[in-house]
Amino acid sequence: MGGFYACYFRAKFKEEFLTIHAINPSWTPSKSLTPYANQVLENFKSKELWKFKETYLLRLEEYERYIQENLKTQACKSLYLHISNSDEILKFDKMLNYLDKHKINYIKNIYDTDHRFRNIKEVMKLIVTI
């Protein structure tokens, strides 16, 4: 979800100096997370149980619309996409098509990994050098 929110902030803030690094950004999390609606889930770190409410999906839909309406108005000179080539959960076609259609400048970095991005250290090294 961090990559999704990174795109949201890129759409929201107009400052050209803002650099965004979106790691495996979801384009439509309201769709990919639908199976989890109204389920009790466990926090991976704290093991705390929490309920993923259907209202969260509605909020995500609002954010998705906002991104799709506003990202195209940004200069986006500093939008870096870090994408795994074997992501078993997310597909990036619609997002990349949107970026290309609206002539949004971005730099795409593809990594040989899955959705869990096991080689995140490689990404962090690149981010620090940019």
Average of pLDDT:
90
The coarse silhouette is: globular
Cα radius of gyration in angstroms = 15 Å
Query: Helix- and strand-based class?
Result: alpha/beta
| Full CATH superfamily name | Alpha/Beta hydrolase fold, catalytic domain
Helix content: 25-40%
Please state how the strands of the largest beta sheet are arranged side by side: 1-4-5
Query: Can you tell me the CATH architecture?
Result: 3-Layer(aba) Sandwich
Describe this structure in words.
The protein has 130 residues and is of the alpha/beta class. It has helices at 2-12, 29-32, 54-70, 93-101, 120-129; strands at residues 20-23, 39-42, 49-52, 79-84, 107-111. The protein has one domain (2-129): Alpha/Beta hydrolase fold, catalytic domain (Rossmann fold). The chain is built from 5 helices and 5 strands, in the order H-E-H-E-E-H-E-H-E-H. It has a 3-stranded parallel sheet with strand order 1-4-5. Strands 2-3 form a two-stranded antiparallel sheet. Strand 4 (79-84), helix 4 (93-101) and strand 5 (107-111) form a beta-alpha-beta unit. The relative contact order is 0.18.
